[in-house]
């Protein structure tokens, strides 16, 4: 049986771990967590540490409904929303073709940018001819490390270009 790691008091996305809550039928440690939205959930410690559980599911609901810019609420998703969504997919979706270069290297999206509205407030609307760029390619996505960049700026900021 794996060694016990106490994660009480630690934060994972919107979840604050309150206490250990036994084990599931497969022997995995369960934890009671308080979500920032006010709900309490029970989840596996492995899913918390792997970044697979970051809310009580309210995060997913917020992504789909609150801003009116996703393809589920508008005829077509805005370019900023599509960019935000792809950023999350690269970092957290192991099925994404680019996951190994992002989430697989430990690149994450800052807590503030878990909500699309905060991303849009910090970055503003995308100027024509630009795309999202991390200034330091080894750091996470955050307001202090991202910009809207031209293709030339992007090409000069590739990991291969930085190693020369």
| Helix percent band | 25-40%
pLDDT below 50 for ≥5 consecutive residues: which ranges?
none
- What is the count of distinct domains? 2
Span of the ends, CA to CA: 47 Å
Q: How would you characterize this protein structure?
A:
The protein starts with 10 loop residues before the first strand and ends with a helix. It is α+β, with helices and mostly antiparallel strands and about 160 residues long. The chain contains 6 helices and 6 strands. It has a 4-stranded antiparallel beta sheet. A two-stranded antiparallel ribbon has the order 5-6.
How would you summarize what this structure contains?
The chain has 164 residues and is α+β, with helices and mostly antiparallel strands. Helix content is 28%, strand content 19%. Strands 1-2-3-4 form a four-stranded antiparallel sheet.
Question: What are the key terms here?
Answer:
two-stranded antiparallel sheet; four-stranded antiparallel beta sheet; single chain; elongated; 28% helix; 164 residues; 2 domains; alpha+beta; 6 strands
Task: Write the topology of this structure.
Elements: E1 11-12, E2 15-23, E3 29-35, E4 40-44, H1 45-49, H2 58-65, H3 79-92, H4 116-123, E5 131-134, E6 146-149, H5 151-156, H6 159-163
Antiparallel strand pairs: 1-2, 2-3, 3-4, 5-6
């Amino acid at each position: 049986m794996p060694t016990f790691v106490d994660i009480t008091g630690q934060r994972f996305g919107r979840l604050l771990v309150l206490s250990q809550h036994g084990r599931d039928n497969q022997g995995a440690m369960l934890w009671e967590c308080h979500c920032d939205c006010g709900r309490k959930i029970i989840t596996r410690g492995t899913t918390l540490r792997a970044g697979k559980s970051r809310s009580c599911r309210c995060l997913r609901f917020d992504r789909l409904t609150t801003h009116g810019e996703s393809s589920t609420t508008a005829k077509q998703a805005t370019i900023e929303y599509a960019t935000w969504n792809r950023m999350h997919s690269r970092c957290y979706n192991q099925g994404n073709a680019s996951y190994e270069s992002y989430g697989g290297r430990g690149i994450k999206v800052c807590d503030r940018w878990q909500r699309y509205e905060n991303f849009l407030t910090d970055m503003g609307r995308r100027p024509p001819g630009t795309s999202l760029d991390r200034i330091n390619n080894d750091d996470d996505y955050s307001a202090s490390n991202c910009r809207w960049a031209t293709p030339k700026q992007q090409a000069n900021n590739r990991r291969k270009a930085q190693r020369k």
